[in-house]
């Protein structure tokens, strides 16, 4: 009987000791988890920022398409409006001037005689953010 009680006491002691160790370990793991989550959150912000930069660098074509610019402006052929190639040649090195035009603040330097056709379309570009306009201008100037 004495052996059973001693075994039981040792067993309980081990269980209590293990539980205390587990509590300590759990707290340590939670602390690590919080630290890891903090790092993961920072990393996620960093990745999101990098992804945003990628979108900014490559999304001008999507804006061009979504706004319907392609119905008048083709990549290499002048149609209703000047081609992207023609626009890019005229505004080469003058992104700020192109941005002013798209904001409705600058003069038309490409086919000014047909500005009346483009004028209603400027409402769409005037409502765009500076970031979107910059993407669009970069897309146009690549041609």
TrEMBL record:
Keywords, alphabetical: Electron transport, Heme, Iron, Metal-binding, Transport
InterPro entries linked: Cyt_c-like_dom, Cyt_c-like_dom_sf, Cyt_c_ID
Keyword S-adenosyl-L-methionine: no
Ranges of residues in domain Cytochrome c: 55-143
Protein name from the UniProt record: C-type cytochrome
Organism classification: Bacteria, Pseudomonadati, Aquificota, Aquificia, Aquificales
């Amino acid at each position: 009987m004495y052996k059973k009680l001693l075994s039981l006491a040792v067993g309980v002691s081990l269980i209590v000791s293990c539980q205390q160790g587990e509590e300590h370990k759990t707290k340590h793991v939670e602390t690590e988890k919080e630290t890891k989550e903090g790092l993961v959150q920072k990393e996620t912000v960093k990745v999101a920022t990098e992804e945003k930069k990628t979108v900014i660098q490559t999304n001008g074509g999507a804006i061009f398409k979504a706004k319907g610019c392609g119905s008048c402006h083709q990549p290499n052929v002048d149609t209703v409006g000047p081609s992207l190639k023609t626009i890019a040649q005229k505004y080469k090195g003058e992104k700020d001037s192109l941005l002013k035009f798209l904001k409705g603040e600058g003069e038309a330097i490409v086919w000014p005689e047909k500005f009346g056709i483009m004028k209603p379309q400027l409402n769409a570009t005037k409502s765009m953010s500076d970031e979107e306009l910059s993407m669009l201008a970069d897309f146009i100037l690549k041609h």
